[in-house]
């Protein structure tokens, strides 16, 4: 690793403890990945925010870094373990809430914007094409690399914080052109619409990529159009099932790539098989959750239209970023949705919140939500369109 004199000063401790520890982390990563130098980053998104994941040792480390560490670029957080304002109504244990607040306070002390969301690109942490950034949340990393055309590796919590505190990351992986070329083509021969179906497509392609370690970047054809919500769902799913951090979609994503020779066909039957996989037969649903990744304003507006004047019969959450909810408040969508009995869970999500054991079966339009709902929270799962999720919520 070649360091500039400023970076060397950071490593030597001339800019404080947290900066030094951060540069040590980045320098070590650079050595491991054979990076030649550091590059400046313009945006950071930090994961590992839930106290359930961090525990006391993680919190202690953050508190040490917060003593003199201050971020140098715009930095936001991934979802925390609870709604930071409304946690009581959502049934969060007060002891957990106290510890979660200590975590968020440590981040805030470092100058991090405590908007806790996996969709930072919807609420002001939005890089442009070609910008080098350091993001950690897998769905957001995939969205940033693929849909926006920014450049980021899939950072861990400590390396993302280190990038925020120094303004640098080692130049390797997805920061380099040569590592952004497609390896295999997928031709989708069946229409795909809506967040749920795009999640299923992400699972089909992700599962195939996962089984072939030499393929990580797909080139996808046969999708004439997709909106931002569909793409965010696709990103979450392909990142979950395939570990994918970058894809190309012909006509829809902005990055240049060589076109692979090998093409795999995605048929209707493959999509149906994956859909069946996400649905457990006879799942007993008592919890409906929408907003994985965090719900957009358009999704919230649509839900308000679907539930206007109606009443849900099952516990139903919309997980979203607080700034998105604030606009929904102003537009009156929140009032309609809450009058229907649906709860907003801002700053958190149904995977990182400590809700294991509280419900039996989860209904969601998110393929990623099903994967973690089943694996982490032991929920039975039903995967269906947003409209059908609302129908499920309205049914006894
Ligand atoms: Fe976001 Fe939580 Fe889903 S972090 S992508 S809502 S699992």
Quick structural overview:
The protein is α/β, with parallel strands linked by helices and 396 residues long. It has helices spanning 5-11, 17-32, 51-68, 94-109, 138-148, 157-166, 194-211, 228-242, 268-278, 297-307, 322-331, 333-339, 367-375, 386-394; strands spanning 38-40, 43-46, 74-77, 113-116, 134-135, 168-170, 184-188, 218-221, 248-249, 263-266, 287-295, 315-320, 343-346, 361-364, 380-383. The mean pLDDT is 97.
What does this protein look like?
- With 396 residues, this protein is α/β, with parallel strands linked by helices.
- The protein folds into three domains: 5-177, 2-Layer Sandwich (Aconitase, domain 3), CATH 3.30.499.10; 181-277, 3-Layer(aba) Sandwich (Aconitase, Domain 2), CATH 3.40.1060; 279-394, Aconitase, domain 3, CATH 3.30.499.10.
- Helices cover 42% and strands 16% of the residues.
- The protein has 14 helices and 15 strands.
- Strands 13-12-11-14-15 form a five-stranded parallel sheet, with helices on both faces. A four-stranded parallel sheet has the order 4-3-2-5. A four-stranded parallel sheet has the order 9-8-7-10.
- The protein is globular and about 65 Å long.
- 53% of the residues are buried.
- Bound molecules: FE3-S4 cluster (F3S).
